[in-house]
Design a protein that fits this description.
three-stranded antiparallel sheet, flat, mainly alpha, hpI Integrase, Chain A, about 375 residues
């Protein structure tokens, strides 16, 4: 977002430096940069800036250092404790896997595909109506078959970002596609990824229309109620947002899997100027980071258990490989020691023969 760049510029004006000078001081004198940061924070506090906004200013500076491989130069834990507390506004949480499984029990093929799409890609509900089948690109990586998702920011393809969907979500979409084809729909690259619920192949009905975000939002709200996971609250906020909660689930699970926050922001489609200016990960880097979170994003208990078993088998294979390497290293070392011992024995025998010869000649 543009606000990150504005916040970074404000700090640069405050300290009278350019980005290169800040990076230089972080590398050569990090304690001085910490001091400047704290002075800047006090200056913001004196002007009545809120704690959450102050933390955003500091985060913008942190992004700059991250992009230059200097994140660990400053003691961020200490600085965080010295920051004013941010007022908590969003108290809603991400849905649990158990809650999502319950939803899937009550969902039809179409809604199941939608829920898994949202959970595994982190896209906004408003993006769904712009998605077409041409935006889903199959991917095979380390024995896993899933898909890259090209997400249009608005109608058309003039601007888009990349995220991914899990093998589970990809299979659910393919199952949904097969159902549509069985009904007589001819799927083309420009067919809507998620169409309106009711459709007829008769000419009077025309080609299938994409489901609007309002329609999908209403269907998901009703599904939560039908699954017994929420009741009408009379306007009071729920603990889990019926739609946005899936996006929060995605971000939380990626972070749990150890995916860096900046990668998470990019996969969420956030446009942060500091990131775009200093950090441009390749598609391969995004793919590699995403695969770390596939197990965390998988909802099915069976698939989750299978992924965990696969992870343990891979870990076992790595341990065996390390042990084999250590064994070979020991064998090599032992062989070298045997050679050295053989040399010593030969020297000792030569020495004994020399002494015997000397004694005989001395007589």
């Amino acid at each position: 977002m543009e606000c990150y760049l504005k916040k970074l510029k404000l700090f640069l004006r405050f300290v009278g430096m350019n980005p290169e000078e800040v990076v230089d001081i972080a590398e050569k004198n990090p304690r001085e940069l910490e001091r400047l940061l704290l002075v800047f924070v006090e200056w913001l506090k004196d002007r009545g800036v809120s704690g959450s906004t102050i933390r955003q200013h500091v985060q913008a500076i942190k992004h700059l250092l991250v992009m230059n491989d200097l994140e660990s130069a400053l003691n961020w834990e200490k600085l965080s404790k010295l920051m004013p507390k941010a007022r908590k506004i969003g108290l809603d949480r991400a849905p649990t896997k158990e809650e999502i499984r319950k939803l899937l029990e009550y969902a039809d093929i179409r809604l199941k595909a939608l829920i898994l799409l949202l959970c595994s890609s982190g896209i906004r509900i408003g993006s769904v109506e712009h998605l077409r089948w041409k935006h889903v690109k199959p991917v095979e990586y380390k024995g896993q078959r899933f898909a890259k998702l090209i997400v249009p920011v608005s109608k058309g393809d003039s601007e888009a970002y990349i995220t991914f969907i899990t093998p589970e979500a990809y299979q659910a979409l393919l199952e949904y596609r097969r159902m549509r084809e069985a009904e007589g729909e001819k799927i083309t690259p420009d067919s809507p990824l998620i169409r309106v619920m009711k459709w007829s192949k008769s000419k009077a009905k025309g080609k299938p229309l994409p489901a609007t975000s309002k329609t999908l939002r209403n269907e998901l709200h009703r599904l939560w109620e039908r699954a017994g996971l929420r009741e009408k609250s009379g306007g009071k906020p729920h603990g889990v947002k019926a739609v946005h909660g899936f996006r929060k689930f995605f971000a939380t699970r990626l972070e749990n899997a150890g995916v860096g926050r900046l990668i998470v922001e990019i996969l969420l489609g956030h446009r942060i100027s500091v990131i775009s200016n200093y950090f441009k990960p390749s598609e391969k880097e995004l793919l590699k980071a995403y695969t770390k979170a596939i197990q965390e994003l998988t909802i099915s208990e069976v698939l989750e258990s299978k992924a965990e078993l696969q992870r343990r088998l891979e870990e076992r294979d790595r341990r065996i490989a390390r042990m084999e390497e250590e064994y070979l290293a020991l064998q090599t070392k032992l062989s070298e020691m045997e050679k050295e011992l053989s040399k010593l024995k030969n020297l000792l025998m030569k020495h004994r023969r020399f002494k015997k010869k000397s004694k005989r000649e001395g007589r």
